[in-house]
Amino acid sequence: MKYLLTTGMLCLPFFLFSQTAAKNVPDEIPAKSFFNKDLRINLNESGSQYFRFVFLNQTWVRLNESNPGTTVFGNPKNQTLDFGLRRTRIQMYGQVTDRVFLYMQFGMNNFNRTAAYQANAPAGITQNRKIAAFFHDAVGEYDLWRRGEQFVRIGGGLTVVNGLSRFSQPSVGSIMTTDVPVFAQATVDQIDQFDRKLSIYSRGQVGKFNYRVGVADMFPIETNGAATAGISEHSVFTSSRLAKSFQGMLIYNFWDTEDNTTPGYMTGTYLGKRRVLNLEAGVISQKNATWRKAGADTVYHDMLLWSVAAFLDKPIRESNGAALSAYFGYYGTSYGKGYLRFNGIMNPATGTGKPLAGAGGTHGNAFPMFGNGSVVYTQAGYKFRDDLLGSQGTLMPYVSWQSADYDRISGRMNVWNAGLNWLVNGHKGKWSLNYESRPYFANEAGDGPSLQKKGRKSAVVLQYQISI
């Protein structure tokens, strides 16, 4: 209760005294508000060649109910209140010649007070709170063919261009929910660099079809900065036979085409500024991606991840800006028998006194985010008219549901989120309040090989996002 009161007292001044901003308008329409102007350098007189800078910061205030046994710096904690930076990014990109596009992104993620903590650091090694920022993307593209909005490009570098789904390559500054469904970033920080891969690819818009195909040179699991999981009866990413990953995605646009400016990144919601209805299908495959022990034998498994989905984002009343956004997707996640990975976003805890057999990282806000099996994910939201709050913008409530059927979980695992966006200036200045309900698990005699759900925990997150 004291955390709730403290959080309320901290947040109230921001809601009451948030600076008034102009109503949301499309980026391409000039406006007096600074927040609707690009930070760009024109490289020719017409502005068709340019270089642009974008800054994004997402600050979190979070109250979390801890999973059983959770400790923070060695102390048991039933709940935590923490502050952090979910994402801090600088994007630099532009059309530097008629055919050449350059995109770079630099920043850091998940920075809170536990970010640099190592529970079992070697003697004499101190913790380092200066978490290094890094290049998320560094990619160049070349136009092979272009006619209006139709184009075919080839590209290469460190990139998010991906084959699985739109949420495997999300434009995080424009997502509708407070956070993305991270399970769709299927190999994040295991054999990739925060969802990015060293890839060569082609992407394009041809008629009603948008496509992307590519091959990626995956990173070895040993370089992800965490202790490598030992081989056991459950599949984990292999330490040998490292193979290339092949990926492809095909999207059919019934109505408007989507924004294809930056390499790969897909908009979360256009807030009614476009009329979009898509059918989408994607796949990622990698030979001998995981391994496990079967008696005295070592068994290798190919990884095959695929999805089919529908996406809708459209104005309901173009006269006042009211809009609807919705998504439904089915994901097949074949990593290898018994693969299961717990993950907690910007985990506010550091350890547990009640570890689960055959699972790691189960403390704090973690749940089985990735697993061998299948996932259904859906979300929906409604944006009210632009001037609902007068000069203070408008509101957009939403709900989301992730339902997973993993072979090491008894029954389906359901994670619910419900939230409210206060769009002071569209995505460029917005507050988001999110409630999450997730399951927790325990080992008990008689459970057998599957993990059993024992109850539910929740978290409340307040996010303030600003971008220019």
Q: Tell me about the largest β-sheet.
A: 16 strands, antiparallel, barrel
Coarse morphology: globular
Uncertain residue ranges: 4-36
Total strands: the figure is 23
The overall average pLDDT, rounded, is 90
CATH class descriptor name = Mainly Beta
- Rg, nearest Å: 22 Å
The CATH architecture can be named as Beta Barrel
Strand order of the largest sheet: 2-5-6-7-8-9-10-12-13-14-15-19-20-21-22-23
The CATH topology comes to Porin
- Fourth CATH level, the homologous superfamily: Porin
Number of helices: 1
Quickly list its features:
468 residues, mainly beta, Porin, 16-stranded antiparallel barrel, 23 strands, globular, signal
Give the helix/strand layout.
Blueprint: H1 2-17, E1 39-42, E2 50-65, E3 70-72, E4 75-76, E5 79-95, E6 100-111, E7 134-147, E8 150-159, E9 197-206, E10 209-217, E11 236-237, E12 245-253, E13 276-294, E14 297-317, E15 322-334, E16 340-343, E17 351-352, E18 367-371, E19 373-383, E20 394-406, E21 413-423, E22 429-442, E23 452-467
